[in-house]
Amino acid sequence: MSLLEALALVAIGGVAGFINVLSAGGSMLTLPLLMFLGLPPQTANGTNRVSIVLQSVTAVGGFFRAGARDIGISLRLAIPAVFGSLLGAWLALQVPDALFEAVLVAAMVIASVMMLLPQPRLDTRTLTPERLTPVVYLAMFVIGLYGGFIQVGVGVLFIAVLYRLLRIDLAQVNVFKVFIILLYTLPALAMFMLNDQVRWGYGLLLALGSMFGAWLAVRVNLGPRGAVWVKWLTIAVIVAIVVRLLLF
């Protein structure tokens, strides 16, 4: 690996970490970069998880220090996502690469429709376990399956689904999102490691930048216009992903 390639990994990692924590879609930058640097698609998919885990640790730590925490609810949401992620990672190691794009386009179209629907009336009551219906748990399993399979744009699905089903502020949705992504990415990363699909040098350089991007995104999310940032950045990411996949 040359110095220029190492710097590119850190720089793109920083941009991706900011986008991933505040919205989603950073893997749309990092996966192509890893493949451009010579990694096969499945190895790039596995190596990218190193960055996802460490940027998520940074984001969760930042939110917790700021007092934005609800471990009980987060764990309840994460459990079905973890099981889905294990199945998704296993499927990713079995299927042809061409299937990735078809799944990604379908998921982004669904998410875009959900984000562009009229804003739901927010439920300002304390989020209790009683508000987590079977539909919410099923949605977490399906999103976890998708995240374990491909990861790109998974945050869009978390934002769209939790925003609609729980009717909580988008900035609050983001706090749950990064915690769930951290927990379900760990077993997915382990599965890629067991199949020798992780290149640690690339992954850690990518993570170095993404951790800084995540730190910055936490501060934007907790700002007075955090929810606005989340909504419009998410819509922009959806458009970029769909256009990229349909036209190129």
Automatic annotation (TrEMBL):
Subcellular localization(s) per the UniProt record: Cell membrane; Membrane
A Pfam family hit: TauE
Source organism superkingdom: Bacteria
Keywords from the named record: Cell membrane, Membrane, Transmembrane, Transmembrane helix
Cellular-component GO terms for this entry: plasma membrane
Membrane topology: Multi-pass membrane protein
Transmembrane portions of the chain: 6-38, 73-93, 98-117, 137-163, 175-194, 200-218, 230-247
Similarity comment: family membership: Belongs to the 4-toluene sulfonate uptake permease (TSUP) (TC 2.A.102) family.
Full protein name: Probable membrane transporter protein
Organism classification: Bacteria, Pseudomonadati, Pseudomonadota, Gammaproteobacteria, Oceanospirillales
